[in-house]
Amino acid sequence: VNQSALYHFKSKLDHQKEITMTKYSTQNIFGWDPGMGNQKLFSFEGGTIFPSHIAMKNGSTVAASGGIKAKNKPMELNVKGSEFYAGLSSHWYGEPIENLGYDRLLGAPELRVMFYAVITKHIRKYRLDNQFSISKIVVGLPFELCGEDFEKNKRKVSKFLKGTHTWQADGQSYKITIEQVDITNQAIGAFFDMQLDSDCKFIPDNVRFNRGGILVVSVGNKTTEILFLDDMKLVPNKTAGKTYGVSDLLRMTDPEGL
Fold first, then answer.
1. Do 225 and 234 form a contact (C-beta atoms < 8 A)?
2. Per-residue pLDDT tens for 137-156?
C-alpha cells in the first residue's frame, strides 16, 4: 500500500478532496475522545489522558488531621464562577457528579469541566501557551450518537465547543478559541489508532487499508462499538454500538463494589 493511497482515504474521511500530512502539520488540530472513563486528547505535540472524575466544590477541605495527610488534591477549576474538582481524587473532596448518560457527551455542564481539565493537563504537559487558537477539533462520539440524530447531535457538540473558552485551573487563567468542530465515531478512531504511532506516522505492519473485510471492535468504559468495513466501505447491518463497557463487567464480577 503506497502512502498516496493512505492519504487519499484519509481525505475522504475529512470530506476534502486532497489532504496530506504536510497540510495537517501547518494547522493546530486536536482530537478529543470524551470517554466515560477517561478523557483522551491528542495534538501534534502528543497525547494526554485524564480521568473523567469530577465533583462540585462544596466548601473548604481539611488538609491534615492529627499528623495524617489528606489524599492527593485534585485539580481545582473555576468555570464561569462555579468551582469544581477534577481527577481521580475529586470524589474524595467534593460532591461527585456521576452522570453516565449520553446527554453528558452533548454539552452538559460537566462535559465542559472535563474538557477544560484534560486540555489544562495537555497545556502543562507540553508547555503550551495559556492562550492559543485551535483551527479544528475532531470529537469522537459513540455510534448511538452518530445515527439518525447525528446532525442534531453534531450541532449540539459544535455549539458547546466552537468559539472562545475561558477558565481557571488551580488559580491560573486559560483562554482558547476553537474555529472548527468535526465529529466522527469512536470506532473509526480505534481503526486509525492501531495504525498510527505517537508521531502520527503509519506503522507498516498494522496498516489495514486493503480490500476485503475489516472488523474493528472498540471497547470503552461505558460503550462498545463494532465497525465492519468491506472494501473500505461501512456495512450498516454489521455495524452497531451499545451502552455496555468494562464498567459493566466490573459490576457483574463485583456487584457489591468490594
1. no
2. 999 887 777 777 878 888 88
Q: What share of the chain is helix, strand, coil (3-state, %, to 5)?
A: 30, 35, 35
For residue 76, what are the contacts with CB-CB under 8 A and spacing of at least 6?
Answer: 57, 83, 84, 85, 86, 169, 170, 171
3-44 pLDDT tens trace: 444 444 444 444 443 444 444 444 589 999 888 788 899 898
Residues 208 and 2: their CA atoms lie apart, in Å, by 12
For the chain, the straight-line distance linking the first and the last C-alpha, in angstroms and rounded, comes to 50
- Taking the C-alpha atoms of residue 93 and residue 77, their distance in angstroms, rounded to an integer, is 13
User: Rounded to whole angstroms, how far apart are CA atoms 216 and 228?
Assistant: 6
Largest separation between any pair of C-alpha atoms in the chain: 67
- For residues 76 and 170, the answer to whether their CB atoms sit within 8 Å is yes
Give the up-direction half-sphere exposure of residue 62: CA atoms within 13 A in the CB hemisphere: 6
For residue 52, give the nearest of 107, 126, 104 by alpha carbon. Answer: 104
